[in-house]
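In this supplementary section we document a worked example of the pipeline. Step one takes a protein sequence of length 302 as its only input; no multiple sequence alignment statistics are reported here. Step two produces a three-dimensional model, which step three serialises into structure tokens for compact storage. The input and output of this example are shown verbatim.
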Amino acid sequence: MTNAPTKLTLTLEWFLNPDHLPFIAGIKTGAYQQAGVELTIIEPDDHYDGFAELNNRTIDLHTNEPLHLFEHYAPNLRSLGCFFETDGGILMRGNSEQVLQKLKEQQTIRICTPAAEEKTNRIGFEVLDRYAKQQGIELSQNNVEFVQADFYHITNMQNDPSLDGAWLCFYNFEGVEATQAGMSFTFIDQHASPFANFSALDIITTDEIYQDKKQAIDSFIKVTNDMIELCRAEPETVRELYYQYSDTKADELMNAIIDDTLSRFIHPIESHQAKWQELRQMLAEIDIVTLTDEQYQSLWAG
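The serialised model returned by step three reads:
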């Protein structure tokens, strides 16, 4: 008699998209089921729902950026490892010379964002300010306005010429979309501005959940690693799995986004604290969140 699979529930950081392809592939190929895991994926109403759900033990796993893992620190939270990392930052309209000229002239800069909150705006300004400082330009916060919008950054910029840029952009989405649209743009990421990148996704659980479902969670990580290898080896297969699971039709833009995304999955998924030390230091420097050594070290499984 075969044992029933262990149910695991995973709440995403936002809506389903190609960043989640290893999980989609694991479900659609039956690989999780074969490993004794029945995975359910949940799209949240809010970016931080997963942390509350972990605390309430209504889910088993959550994906989110390491920044938010730090912000929502709790002694029992554990990162099982990072499975995806992209280039992230601010997408500005125009080439680099045009962008720097506008910054130099201290013109008002309007940047749309899906999260125009004080802390998020502060990080966005830091990204732009560090970029400007490399060219000897001093920015004033009074000249940078973050405008609340939705996730459709490129559409927002196309529809509103007064917008100079968009913040909280992932290159595998907005960079690809802007390129496909023939837009002249400058992508200010961690390579262009000296800031610690946090455009990545960790898999998060709690001590209690891990101890209760250790075998299933270990199997989940192993299968997800296998699915990352599948993403690299069989891009056409996983592309089709994405369209099947999401119940969407293939198009040229999404194909390009998927193709760019596939190269950004991290294998193997491992929990190690050294990866995010630079980010931890930057967030403390700009007074976003400060963790003690003990608090920081406790976040990593193993």
